[in-house]
Amino acid sequence: xxxxxxxxxxxxxxxxxxxxxxxxxxxxxxxxxxxxxxxxxxxxxxxxxxxxxxxxxxxxxxxxxxxxxxxxxxxxxxxxxxxxxxxxxxxxxxxxxxxxxxxxxxxxxxxxxxxxxxxxxxxxxxxxxxxxxxxxxxxxxxxxxxxxxxxxxxxxxxxxxxxxxxxxxxxxxxxxxxxxxxxxxxxxxxxxxxxxxxxxxxxxxx
Length: 206
Description:
With 206 residues, this protein is mainly α. The protein contains nine helices and two strands; from the N terminus they run αααααααααββ. A two-stranded antiparallel sheet has the order 1-2. Strand 1 (196-197) and strand 2 form a beta hairpin. Helix 3 crosses helix 7 and helix 5 (81-97) packs across helix 7 (111-121).
């Protein structure tokens, strides 16, 4: 009994540790957790809470680090043309489209990291950012765990569920981009590609 409980706690701990930081591959582990929940070895509710909660905590940490170390964050993002272009693209759209874009950017590659840092650098409000991040992580956790929960038996392996999960992420990102384009721009446009207006510094988003 104790060994089973220790194994369960270990699995929840691994889910939290691999979901909290961005850029850590964890799709197979999450699909496996979903399959274990379907088999009755894990609690489905706890798996969902751990996965979504850890991801949201990681998003909050990225945002907080971006606010605290804005100069270093700018230096890191400006270090390569690819990161600089990602910063410019994300800054323009987060200012223009707000919450729909905060939700959608989570589903593109490196979206958690670049989206959180950019939101911090352009002073996008923390409550609104966390609301968008929370919605995105709830959606992501739900389908990622569900693919393992139902896909493990229907598809025969968690790897099949993982591949479908990546495909779903792309579809969700595409839908979110369409919603972003349809959203009304946030008043007070004119944010530059780096998140800074003319000499005054960073312009806060209402």
